[in-house]
Amino acid sequence: MYPPRSAYLHIPFCHRRCFYCDFAVVPLGDKASGESGPGSNSIKSYLKLLFQEIDLIQDCYPLTTIYIGGGTPSLLTPSQINSLLNHLKNKFGFQDGSEITLEIDPASFTQNDLLAFLDAGINRISLGGQSFNDLVLKALGRRHRKDQLIEACSWLKKLFKEGELKSWSLDLIQNLPGHDLISWELDLKEAMRYLPPHISIYDLSIEPGTVFEWKQKRGELILPQEELALEMNRLTSSILSKSGLARYEISNYALPGHASRHNRVYWSGAGWWAFGMGATSAPWGERFARPRTRDKYFQWIMEQEINGLEPSLLSKNSKVFNFDDQLIVGLRRREGVNLETLAERWGWDQNQSDAYLQSLKLRWQKLINNDLLKHNGDRFFLSDPEGIELSNQILIEMLIWWDSLPASAVQPPNL
Ligand code: SF4
Question: Hey, where are the domains in the chain?
Answer without folding.
Answer: 6-268, 323-410
